[in-house]
Predict the structure of Glycerol kinase.
Amino acid sequence: MMDCILAIDQGTTCTRTILFNPQGGIVATAQRDVTQHFPADGWVENDPEEIWQSVVDLCRELLSIAAARGWRVATIGIANQRETTIIWERATGRPIAPAIVWQDRRTARRCRTLIDAGQNPLVQNRTGLPLDPYFSASKIAWLLDNVPFAREAARKGDLAFGTIDCFLLWRLTGGAVHATDATNAARTMLFDIHRQRWDEELLDLFDIPAALLPDVRDNAADFGQTAQRLFPNVLTIGGMAGDQQAATVGQACFSPGMVKSTYGTGCFMVMNTGTTPVVSRHHLLTTLAYRLEGVPTYALEGGIFVAGATIQWLRDSLHLIQSAGQTEELAASLGSNAGIYFVPAFTGLGAPYWDPDARGAIFGLTRTTGIAEIVRAALEAVCYQTNDLLTAMLADAAQPITELRVDGGMAGNSWLMQFLADLLGIPVARPSAIESTAIGAACLAGLQSGLLGGLEDIAAARHAEHVFHPLLPANRRAALLDGWKAAIRRVTLPPARRPRNSGGRVPL
Ligand SMILES: Nc1ncnc2c1ncn2[C@@H]1O[C@H](COP(=O)(O)OP(=O)(O)O)[C@@H](O)[C@H]1O
Ligand SMILES: O=P(O)(O)OC[C@H](O)CO
């Protein structure tokens, strides 16, 4: 009988479940879109019940496939959209309000007030994060302040807080386990990443009772067992991590200087910096890569908020293309970018520019500009932004970066990956399976269950399907980068000239 691992990847817009064999091969997948709700300007919510139902249905679908083929599902691993905040009643498991999604900006004013009161250094020193609505702390405080009787119930210990991993675990275990993992805890802005524990001063700062908080465990740990009758068999849950951290494990970035970049709707780049945290001087986040056997491994992280989303915009709003895959052929049909630069600052710009008021623009249009030129400029923009992040990481970290490991839907575009290698000047390695997030979750559960012996097994199972080597001459590369920098200058204001309380909508 073949042993399998069931991975749950609960993302911002989609839930996926994937069944892996112990060698890391995908044997079955299922997925379902999850609805995002936008009840007010800058607000983004999910229905926790819809998320839960998608997870249960998709797990059952794969468990019945496994049963039909005579496979044994040995353990479950969970990866999840990070920071998204749910508070529920301990007695009933019912959420007291919709989930507040990581992209939600409703707490911008509260964060600004705390920044103006000089609290940012405290937050940054303890958590590695800037004081921003992106993270869970101000979202928890908002729920306690705005849902009737919530604060009183929280003080009495009647409520529980969790990010999506923690809420799913509570439900999967029938309310028996209230726990999260260290990588998810590190994104709440309440967790001291140095001492690896909830921070009382930060809890006071946001007026959050400690009784709300879950236990924090390693990424490979005993997270309990599924409730009787939920599935045909009781299953153990052995792995849990935030999705970008799970992808870091799935990409086997286990040594300092190893970097992965996941290209989906947005793009998140994570660099392993070893067992000592590196403080960024370029507005990157200091966070955890993973924690195993109580030992934290740290990371630097930068995000591009609009990556594949630009391609969706070209397809669904402008109707310039019929499918995302078509962009590869269109870009390759041109000998150059024809001087066109597309800055997709739809919701401002993140690291290293940090301009929430910047807006998108396309420069260099002429009468000969066509769909192919615009598509190519949209793809190139993802590479220029990756280069900006890589430059910031190189400046912050002591290690050289010799390769970029890529995954996510956009990584399937070979023209894009070659241009990325050309621009970064380092090899870009694409694994045979670009589902690195789910692979990472499965590997963590595999470590806990003993199906995998150690990190070396994960590294051995990962294979680069293709390595894209830089081919562009240095002078061409420099000219392209100059064009990008000029385009960026035209959409951003220098920090000193930015409006004070702009309420910009960029997370971070
Ligand atoms: N061949 C391609 N070329 C360019 N973009 C692509 C390609 N395939 C998918 N995408 C983009 O990648 C995104 C989907 O990737 P995926 O990893 O599934 O994202 P997510 O997990 O964020 O939903 C979409 O935004 C889509 O437009
Ligand atoms: O759901 P994704 O893949 O867009 O990832 C979301 C991030 O975890 C947010 O920090």
